[in-house]
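hey team, just a heads up i'm posting the complex here instead of the shared drive bc the drive is being weird again. everything in one block, sequence lines first with there labels, then the predicted structure for the whole assembly after. its two chains so it's a bit long, scroll down
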Amino acid sequence: MKIKNENDLIEYLINNIQTKSKDITRTIGDDCAVLKISSKKSLVFTTDTSLEGPHFTKEYSPVDIGYKCLASNLSDIAAMGCRPRYFLMAITIPNLNSDWIKNFYKGIRELSKKHKLVLIGGDTNRGPLSISIQVIGENKKNILYRSGAKINDDIYVTGNIGLARASLIFSQKKMLVESKKFLKNLRHPIPRIDIGQAISEFASSCIDISDGLAKDLNIILQQSKQGALIEFEQIPSAPVIINKLDDKDLYEAVLGGGEDYELCFTANRRFRKKINYISDKFKTKITKIGMICGKKLIYTRKGRIIRPKIKGFDHFSN
Amino acid sequence: MKIKNENDLIEYLINNIQTKSKDITRTIGDDCAVLKISSKKSLVFTTDTSLEGPHFTKEYSPVDIGYKCLASNLSDIAAMGCRPRYFLMAITIPNLNSDWIKNFYKGIRELSKKHKLVLIGGDTNRGPLSISIQVIGENKKNILYRSGAKINDDIYVTGNIGLARASLIFSQKKMLVESKKFLKNLRHPIPRIDIGQAISEFASSCIDISDGLAKDLNIILQQSKQGALIEFEQIPSAPVIINKLDDKDLYEAVLGGGEDYELCFTANRRFRKKINYISDKFKTKITKIGMICGKKLIYTRKGRIIRPKIKGFDHFSN
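-- predicted structure starts here --
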């Protein structure tokens, strides 16, 4: 077997390394691993590495880098409907610049304080900048998986979609005013921890859309063995994105997206009122964008079926 | 406060980030963090990054790299007297070379199979080679800490000491036959998992000596607020190291050391028989090298006090 991309690697690992055990209810290939520690309580584990290039650029301040590294990990915990509790950090830095380090940890602290996280371990090395964080969370009630979507469930997203990617697209087009407008979405995403826990009582599936709405929704559909109908106009974005980008770039921003760190989840329609209440409580938009039905993922726009072409993202095929 | 080395960084973190919580019985600054999950059971967590340069060189085969990355993490679990159960891997690699990857995981598998470890998660990115592993372990009986050494306790080490470092010293001296003799100790260290668990019933303190016997024993003494008397001749090494290195290099290899991944532990003398039994059972030398006494760390050799000068190791001051 030739390993050509991340999916091949995951397949290779599943076939060649022990990845299953009876107390591990979710293992490699999911957002988080799940370890059952009692009849009601589980711990969830996730790890993510952030590097200059794919995850941040030289334009990011050390505060932004610290913040975003932790945010991307917390988003995986949010997608499981869990509460993050502890974290470990293995950081590799070119040199010990006190100012840089203090600012980097200022970004970390903004999130760790907000969510009462405890730093319990780590490792520090000298080398090209690279930050690996591991977060340990615990379930509040149920744990949310990608595989539970049921026919006729509503499909929701939190927040506005495509803003982080639009900032990059506007920047490439030298539309710097527009790009700057969404820079905060790119560099300072808000992991939806509170909402993840609130919907964990009733949602049938959930994923964070850090790899883009189309790709991540497709994972829910594949794992749940369902199809979906999405009304493109219902996907909340920003007027300037909808008005100033041509269709190709608009689909790329909203559906290709990535780096949004919003949640996409499904729930039976009897929870609509509850979802409105959660949206009000956490002052965060939660929008119904379609429903689970059929066998495929179908998008409509202005009453017509559209077939947007979107580039995928794989660290090894770009 | 200016952050000049790893200790400064740890101090900065303890003062500026939440690192304590009532269910966390050991936190940042120890080999592993300890999370109490019931009256008898705890989970321990450790993370280590391995990089080309400080941890392996271009001469290492991918099998060696995989093996050693996991071994160094497992050694931290061994030092706590715990059993490793699960691991996560965040790897950054320059490209997806199938052969390299398969050989790398062959090294990983050698250890994961032996210790029945389960790979439960990870992350893969493209960039300069860097491997961050997190291992989750659980206690068998007691958890071993660095802080429990008591006056009159015996001090022991497992295996032979200084072999990994001697391989490097011989290589620098172009004594290639001698260097090659200990290459296996450098590239293929054996984490003392079984012995760590066996001594967890009675040892008063334990540490792995991956940073060198002198430095790591000093940590036990500092944290236990004790001194020690070490008979240099009692420290088991190899004849060629003792015979062919001058005193400066000999002390550097045996006391400065590093990369040995043996355990140094303390125990009341009433456990001597038990320790012999454990040594026989696991076919591993366990040698008494001195005792806990006084306020300082004192070395003797041929009945005289020696004051070996050893270079320390800090990733940021070399």
